[in-house]
Design a protein that fits this description.
Largest sheet: 2 strands, antiparallel
Structural class: mainly alpha
Strand content: 5-15%
Number of helices: 16
CATH architecture of one domain: Alpha Horseshoe
InterPro entries: Ankyrin_rpt, Ankyrin_rpt-contain_sf
Pfam families: Ank, Ank_2
Shape: elongated
Protein name: Ankyrin
CATH class of one domain: Mainly Alpha
Distance between the termini: 77 Å
Strand order of the largest sheet: 1-2
CATH topology of one domain: Serine Threonine Protein Phosphatase 5, Tetratricopeptide repeat
Oligomer: single chain
Order of helices and strands: HHHHHHEEHHHHHHHHEEHH
Keywords: ANK repeat
CATH superfamily of one domain: Ankyrin repeat-containing domain
Helix content: 40-55%
Length: 346
């Protein structure tokens, strides 16, 4: 093992030298020489070699150096530089270019093989995207999601033009589709564009996530919610697995009166008496047997069945929001209550 780490020292040396040269604004000829030295040794064969230098060239807006480095460095590599812990910030060079809204840099990287559907952020961009509130911060983000978060419609259009999937598969820690994210942060132009490109309006959400309408309702974006409903969004779509919320429940929990009244309009078909079933695992922690394992601890699954109205009240009560509770009750009295009375009369 020690031989392995000793064998990495020359490789790191060339990466460090290349990075420092870009950082210092060295001439193109100097960088070319360093690249030749790195390629003549083991450094040039590492997948991430030159990625940190590539990020620095992006930050410096040095497009000549960027074009040179993009030919040899991985646009999706993460490379640690000695003495500069901040450099490994879990955003790859392609993600960096998008985060800085550098259209030219994004074009250069795409030309040299950057993947428009790639995962580019691995630890969140909360401090870099001010449009995102705490409850909606994401850790793992694709190129499209980063472009949406920074509000760059031009880059979103470019990525889609180059093959980015507007209905990209959720998983591997990616918790939002592009449309769900645009609706959540309230970018109407982005929502309109993505739907025009074939984004599925009621795409099944990830665990604890939501449909585009549910997320718009949670955030109080009534204009987007209305637009989604006009395009066929289901106001009674079931909640996501885990801590999911139906659209009306989300609006009630976060006290979004405009959204609640929109959803309650007769033509929307809101079903407040609709029963919602959620599943919880009941864990038996009473066993002290030394031979028991984790698989023995799950005693049973409990099914919680409540109406959408009951859940909306419960979520508003949990936040101690009396105004929201009264709005929910008022809406139910005019809509949900009538439905209950009709059912009881049969």
């Amino acid at each position: 093992m020690m031989e392995y780490f000793l064998g990495q020292e020359p490789t790191n040396k060339y990466s460090n030298e290349l990075y420092r040269a870009i950082q210092a604004g060295s001439e193109l000829a100097t960088v070319e020489l360093l690249l030749e030295q790195g390629n003549s040794n083991s450094a040039g064969h590492r997948p991430q070699y030159g990625s940190a230098a590539l990020k620095m060239a992006i930050r410096n807006e040095d497009y000549d150096l960027l074009k040179l480095l993009a030919r040899v460095a991985d646009a999706h590599g993460l490379e640690q530089i000695e003495g500069d812990r901040a450099e490994l910030d879990y955003v790859d060079p392609f993600g960096e270019a998008i985060l800085l809204e550098d259209y030219e840099a994004v074009c250069i990287l795409l030309k040299h093989g950057a993947n428009p559907d790639a995962l580019v952020s691995f630890w969140g961009l909360t401090q870099s995207t001010p449009r995102v509130v705490d409850y909606s911060a994401l850790d793992r983000m694709t190129a499209l999601l980063v472009a949406i978060d920074v509000g760059s419609l031009h880059i979103v259009q470019l990525l889609v033009e180059r093959g980015a999937d507007v209905n990209s598969r959720l998983g591997m820690g990616v918790l939002r589709s592009p449309l769900q994210r645009a609706a959540e942060i309230g970018d109407f132009s982005m929502v309109e564009f993505l739907i025009g490109q074939g984004a599925l309006i009621d795409l099944e959400p990830a665990y604890g996530g939501g449909t585009a309408l549910q997320l718009a309702a949670m955030s109080g974006h009534v204009g987007i919610a209305e637009f989604l409903i006009e395009r066929g969004a289901d106001v009674n779509h079931p909640p996501a697995r885990g801590p999911g919320r139906m659209a009306f429940e989300a609006a009630a929990e976060w006290c979004r009166p405009d959204v609640m009244y929109l959803l309650a309009q007769p033509e929307q078909g809101l079903q407040l008496d609709l029963e919602v079933t959620t599943e919880f695992e009941i864990v038996d922690c009473s066993s002290d047997d030394e031979g028991s394992d984790d698989s023995d601890m799950v005693d049973a699954c409990h099914l919680d069945v409540r109406t959408q109205y009951e859940r909306a009240i419960a979520f508003a009560e949990a936040r101690n929001d009396h105004a929201s509770i009264e709005i929910v009750r008022s809406i139910y009295a005019s809509i949900g209550g009538r439905l209950s009375a009709q059912i009881e009369s049969f």
